[in-house]
Amino acid sequence: MKFRMPMTAIAAALAASVAMPAAAAEINATVVNGHPPVFLWVKHLTETFIPTVNKELEGTDYSFKWTEAYGGTLAAVGGELEAIEDGLAEIGAVPTVFEPTALPLQNVSYFTPFGTPDAQIVIDAVDKLHQDIPGMIGSWEKYNAEYLGGGFALDNYVLMTNFPVESMDDLKGHKIGAPGAAVNWVEGTGAVGVAGNLTTYYNDIQTGVFDGTIVFPTAAAPAKLQEVAKHILVTDFGAQYAGTLVANKEWYDDQPEVVQNALRTAAAAYTKAYIAEQTQRVEAALKQMEDGGAIITKLSDENRAKWAAALPQIADAWAKNADEQGLPGSEVLDAYIGQLKDAGVSLGRDWTQR
């Protein structure tokens, strides 16, 4: 005996199947950075990047379940790129300043000091390099990373020391901590550059590992560096490109277009929000440190020019080294300086003059 479902029941079943939406696919993603959330480039992962992705995906078939791994919980400072490459994290704010060997091209600003104090100009210039020069994107792909665009630049670097400095002559015999390639900024001054990072500067100065550091105000203030290095010299080393947002490329390539677009939109929103807050916080940071006992002086134009001229041709040496590795180092250097000039920047030194 055959069982026949009444037509009314069939119609009801079909209606129910149409009325019930398909369950949204939940994507698991870990976001990594080695610094703690007190720093702006981490803060805006939580406050801007993630919420923007979520908003962009509203009404789609996709959503994210986020895991935020900051402050060394998954990767130490400088270990983010490896975490992305190995698939330990899907998305990361990678500080390129700590990857001078793996990502030399992205460190161009650190080899051209005394440039612009405007972080937005720096970000725009390096982002355009990624658009115009294939080797920039290729640098990321070598490590299974997908460049999402934008990024973060650090505000105009200053010199903080536990002794007074009026010119580079006062640095002779002193040890100065600096991030990555910034150790080159004291070469030829008589000082000894020592590699370091924000997570250790306070203790390193306090314990005598070095006598001061090259740092940017919006990080120095929350770290209370004025407590151990009260002399702040505004040298106008310039704002520096320090990193960007990337995704694990294999993971990214597996995502539908709507998700890829959401990630890129969020990266742009992240950069905009980061720059806006950074701009507001620079003067406040200097005032906070001054109120906390810092003595702030400005390097004279004459001494700035003298310092810039005293440095060896670190930009050309960097470019040639990249060229020898098969990378477009000289092309990147010329294009970067050209973009700064096009933006009306008054350079402390034209590093394209070999």
TrEMBL record:
Gene3D superfamilies, per the entry: Bacterial extracellular solute-binding protein, family 7 (3.40.190.170)
Question: Which keywords belong to this entry?
Answer: Signal
According to the record, the signal peptide region is 1-24
Give the GO biological process terms: transmembrane transport
> Can you tell me where the transmembrane regions are?
none
Give the matching InterPro entries: DctP_fam, TRAP_DctP_sf
Entry keyword Lipid metabolism? no
Under Pfam families, the record lists: DctP (PF03480)
Q: Which domain of life is it from?
A: Bacteria
- Establish whether keyword Signal is in the entry: yes
Specify the protein name.
TRAP-type C4-dicarboxylate transport system, substrate-binding protein
Organism annotation = Aquamicrobium aerolatum DSM 21857
Species lineage, top-down? Bacteria, Pseudomonadati, Pseudomonadota, Alphaproteobacteria, Hyphomicrobiales
